[in-house]
Amino acid sequence: MIEPRAQMNNVSMYSPGKPVEELKRELGLDHVIKMASNENPYGFSPMAKEAMMEEMKNVHYYPEITAPVLADKLSRNLEVPANTLIFGNGSDEIIRMITRTYLNVGEEAVMASVTFPRYKTNVVIEGGKPVNIPMKEGTHDLQAMKKAITSKTKIVFVCNPNNPTGTIVGEEELLQFLESIPSDVLVILDEAYYEYVHTDDYLQSINYLDQFPNLIILRTFSKIYGLASVRVGYGIMASDIVQEILKGKDPFNVNRLAQAAAWAAIGDKEFMTMTKQKNEEGRLYLESNFSRLGLSYFPSHTNFVMVDVAQNAEEVYNRLLEKGIIVRPGHLMGYSTMIRVTIGKQEENEQFIQALEQVLEK
């Protein structure tokens, strides 16, 4: 057997939510609800569909490598210069590009102990050392993260809102944290769920890019825009960082259909508003029923809620599978009695609550 790089012995394959088709085959079910992967249950913008259909005529051509049309439209929408944007095959590819570009073997990356797992994976692959800081009530402990920074620290990851807990750190606390970080340490704010935030106590990070040239903001078209399968994420950062990352970027990483769908989706404000409103209604419904059932949960600013079922999470997960409902068991993420459930359509939320109540009664 040909031995892989030593770093690969310390990483494992990403574990996605169980596919609907797989569960149907395994249990012989006709109807399955997937509430595990934080996908948009309302689909995606019809304007994006139309744009992809139109772009089909160009499928035999390679895409433009810096997505200039998308960059121009997004720059105007966000009011940032186009040369501060970079696009990836999902924002997780941008994470990989950042660690490839900036992380030397032996350097450290500080992150929360329970957060998006691809931070740790990419740090390890590049020969870096993840420094995991315990959460505080499901939220980033920024004070502890700041204390963990040493002369070896190259990157700090802050997922805000955090996946899988759905929590945020407040505006003043995060701003003070940014002010305290040495200028030679990159701070990556992962804002994949930015559009779902429902409080004024949230740092509008784009406004601070000039003040903090070591700041990188990550966002995505996979969540509220509903374009998960075509894979478009983007980063906002100083233009000199963009130029360094471009050196190692795969040339045709974001395909033509994805670029067309993304720039069209930006213009569909009606779909965005509808999704956010329906998600808010679903969140309140789930939270009220969790309270009725005597279950605690983390306050969520995303399209999912992490709830403590006060029982073995893996067992609850498996019982829900038998009822045709796929959620995310918390034991895989460090919370042995919690499950993470994606907010679905109202009928899906109702079926989930009914099934959960039956499972907990047993």
TrEMBL record:
Coiled-coil stretches: none
Matches recorded under InterPro entries: Aminotransferase_I/II_large, HisP_aminotrans, HistidinolP_aminotransfase, PyrdxlP-dep_Trfase, PyrdxlP-dep_Trfase_major, PyrdxlP-dep_Trfase_small
Name under which the protein is recorded: Histidinol-phosphate aminotransferase
EC primary class: transferase
EC number: 2.6.1.9
The protein's annotated pathway: Amino-acid biosynthesis; L-histidine biosynthesis; L-histidine from 5-phospho-alpha-D-ribose 1-diphosphate: step 7/9
Assembly: Homodimer.
Family matches, as PANTHER family: HISTIDINOL-PHOSPHATE AMINOTRANSFERASE, HISTIDINOL-PHOSPHATE AMINOTRANSFERASE 2
GO molecular function list: histidinol-phosphate transaminase activity; pyridoxal phosphate binding
Segments crossing the lipid bilayer: none
Gene: hisC
SUPFAM superfamilies membership: PLP-dependent transferases
The UniProt record lists the keyword Cell membrane: no
The family this protein is said to belong to: Belongs to the class-II pyridoxal-phosphate-dependent aminotransferase family. Histidinol-phosphate aminotransferase subfamily.
Keywords, alphabetical: Amino-acid biosynthesis, Aminotransferase, Histidine biosynthesis, Pyridoxal phosphate, Transferase
Organism from which the protein derives: Salibacterium salarium
Domain Aminotransferase class I/classII large stretches: 31-356
